[in-house]
Amino acid sequence: MIETPYLLFLGDAADPLAAKVAQGIKDWRPEFCVGQLRLDGCQADMGLDDLTIEEAIAKGAKTMVIGVANRGGYISDSWREVIKQAIESGMDVASGLHNLLRDDIDLVEAASQNGRTLHDVRIPSVKYPIANGVKRTGKRMLAVGTDCSVGKMYTALCMEKVMRERGMKASFRATGQTGILITGDGVPLDAVIADFMAGAVEYLTPDNDDDHWDLIEGQGSLYHASYSGVTLALVHGGAPDALVLCHEPTRKHMRGLPDHQQPSLEELRDTALILARVVNPDVKVVGVAINTQHLSDDEAATLCKETEERMGLPTVDPYRHGAERLVDALESI
Amino acid sequence: MIETPYLLFLGDAADPLAAKVAQGIKDWRPEFCVGQLRLDGCQADMGLDDLTIEEAIAKGAKTMVIGVANRGGYISDSWREVIKQAIESGMDVASGLHNLLRDDIDLVEAASQNGRTLHDVRIPSVKYPIANGVKRTGKRMLAVGTDCSVGKMYTALCMEKVMRERGMKASFRATGQTGILITGDGVPLDAVIADFMAGAVEYLTPDNDDDHWDLIEGQGSLYHASYSGVTLALVHGGAPDALVLCHEPTRKHMRGLPDHQQPSLEELRDTALILARVVNPDVKVVGVAINTQHLSDDEAATLCKETEERMGLPTVDPYRHGAERLVDALESI
User: Fold this and answer.
1) Is the ipTM here above 0.90?
2) Which of A98, A140, A226 should we substitute to test contact with B (largest number of B Cβ atoms within 10 Å)?
3) Which of these, A322, B85, B129, B268, is most buried using a 10 Å CB contact count?
4) Residue A197: per-residue pLDDT
5) A199-237 residue pLDDT tens
6) pTM value?
């Protein structure tokens, strides 16, 4: 568990996209953000107060989050200086970079001397159990996609936002690095040892109140040859009561696999249901989330309407149109 | 790759079952075995010559394989003495124990001083790639089960034996510890990091002659909540041309999951085909292998006949009846 609130470190981000982790935290957990720290040349701006480390500490910041990625995911000398200063001033540091904080001797030494924690969210910090398949209390929603990177995390976060506005009990459960940094907790599922994947998801979504919903962040796709095993572990470890189908309509082929085509939403629905029923016979597909970022307003509205008629399921772009109708569907089961 | 031939170390095996790794090597690769080494009180016997380490070396043994497990999977003092002696006499050592050879300071030091290799087959020795989903040359068979531990490894090994007798090109491809020790090579799939599972299977089954069959050892079950992700990675990384359905008819529930029932062979067939077609549209289910070890001869024959009529697929217990008819089915596609 990463201590909040955060100072968001944007470094010398080459463009706004390089700071997408910071953007995600700012978008979904603004209450966690006391400010941002930018180096010379930084091309990203979260619209937060620019703070020095001392100012951030004075405002209560407990953790500096590396909200930026550079090519190669390494820790540059100019970053290292600031990270060391944050540690020495009393903050923990959290990072999803490929190169781990814990492999950097200077940072490890500084953390040790100052009693601070380095969080490398790219790798697991817990020894997860093997899944036991026992039914847990509470309810669970899982977003499954026709492909990787089609908006599963955003769908779950949009739904959580609406549910909290309605006073429903809802927890986004992060299964990837960005999601973990956004919420401060979760399981980096793609880095878990094969035998423990489903057990890690059970661990992530324990018994809860009967009217509480876990909104589990999806990973990969049952149809993606590289990552489908991770997805099936999510289905069987998560034992969802509700599935939301996620789709990106402009993909020419499966992400990273030029010879592979996306399945139809009907195929995804049928296959996901067969597999999810293994652990939860009552599971239902409740809606469709379409990522319309590459479509005009008219195109997006038309596609959602056509898909809704075809599938007989509420269909929206939850980021563009809001997730209200998906949450309505959850409330009705 | 573990160097052959082997000296099989049976230790002080409490009963024959404790030496099932040694039994597997003796059954399936007798040509790899120069002899066995037993300690006082050993209750297992492979029917091989009892050799000292010096005699084994004289007969050409390159590797001593720990063919026995004790409760807890640890290395006892009496074992350590013999293992050290093997290393100092010039043998490598291979083990599938939970406690790793490489974590034993004495053994690491002995291996280092004598230039020998310690093979811990429980963990990967290769940095596997992420799967690329590209179609490979050659043919592949994968055994899929209604449950874990229903005879998938034995089915593949029985088929390999028949195929080699017929002069066909066939390679058993091990994906578990016992299979790796039997063949000297393979991928310990349950210990691979999630993101690289399917890539590890692609690595294990590379391009080959058009008339060559890889017989891929199955793991887990698409219907087993704890391990299904590993199984789907095998399906998508293996991209099989042929599937054999494996079943154990006396199971009361899924192994280790008292609340979960096995699927029918029809359900397994349909689900496995849907998922396997994602990477190989021409995949076929060619036969059924039933593990009849708990049935009488008559019961076994009746069940196979009934299943064959119901499924319309050649159905045998490959260990009891031979795998000829399953291989016939492979030859016909």
Assistant:
1) yes
2) A226
3) B268
4) 98
5) 999 999 999 999 999 999 999 999 999 999 999 999 999
6) 0.94
Which pLDDT score is estimated for B74? 86
Closest chain A C-alpha to B277 CA, distance in angstroms: 10
Nearest CA in chain B to A227: B195
In this prediction, residue B71 has a pLDDT band, given cuts at 50, 70 and 90, of confident
Tell if the CB–CB gap between B227 and A195 is shorter than 8 Å: yes
Closest residue of B to A134, CA-based? B259
Distance CA A326, CA A116 (A): 41
Query: In chain A, which residues have their Cβ closer than 8 Å to the Cβ of B260?
Result: 133, 278-279
* Burial class of residue B112 in the structure, from the number of CB atoms within 10 Å of its CB (0-12 exposed, 13-18 middle, 19+ buried): exposed
User: How would you classify the pairing of strands B169-173 and A242-247?
Assistant: unpaired
User: Which residue among A195, A232, A275 places its CB closest to the CB of B191?
Assistant: A195
Task: Give tens-digit pLDDT for A128-170.
Answer: 999 999 999 999 999 999 999 999 999 999 999 999 999 999 9
B193 with A193: Cβ contact below 8 A: yes
Residue numbers in A near B259 (CB within 8 A):
133-135
Q: Do A134 and B190 touch (CB under 8 A)?
A: no
